[in-house]
Design brief:
The protein is of the alpha+beta class. The chain has four helices and four strands, in the order H-E-E-H-H-E-E-H. A hairpin with a 2-residue loop joins strand 3 and strand 4. Helix 1 packs across helix 4. The chain is globular.
């Protein structure tokens, strides 16, 4: 693998992509469920790798079935753009950006966060089941509890 440093004029051909580990993804899910229990809602939780591919998922017994798909799409959106999903509400008011709202997986509802470690995105976290404020609160608590940076 070419690391980007070269003594000749050949450009780097690849990058090392950081990715959340399976154990960290599982720990995030556990932390989200603990926060959701404390806050008072049943959650579906999705964790993706940096490329938006599902790494881990769990849905509480009483969480509505639609929360599963929404959580995955929130995690995908957060990983894809490396911004929290609630930020999309403001972005989509811009006529130049608004057409992105028609993208099937783009989810502009709170509860999706990029998973940031040492300033680098390593995945996406998506939570669905509560209000958007509850989903956001559970995400922030879980990310902080595991030492990830909040965007």
């Amino acid at each position: 693998m070419n690391t980007g440093t070269s003594t000749d004029s050949v450009p780097a051909r690849s990058l090392a992509a950081p990715s959340i580990t399976r154990s960290a993804a599982g720990a995030l899910i556990t932390a989200v469920h603990a926060a959701a229990d404390r806050i008072g809602f049943e959650a579906a939780v999705a964790v993706t790798d940096v490329g938006g591919h599902l790494k881990a998922f769990d849905r509480a017994d009483e969480a509505p079935f639609l929360t599963a798909e929404v959580a995955v799409d929130k995690a995908w959106t957060a990983a894809s753009f490396r911004i929290s999903t609630h930020a999309w509400n403001a972005y989509l008011t811009d006529r130049q950006v608004a057409p992105l709202a028609n993208r099937p997986r783009l989810t502009a509802v709170g509860g999706g966060y990029p998973i940031i470690e040492n300033g680098r995105c390593v995945g996406g976290l998506g939570i669905s089941g509560g209000t958007y404020e509850q989903d956001q609160q559970a995400a922030e608590e879980a990310l902080s509890a595991l030492g990830f940076d909040l965007p």
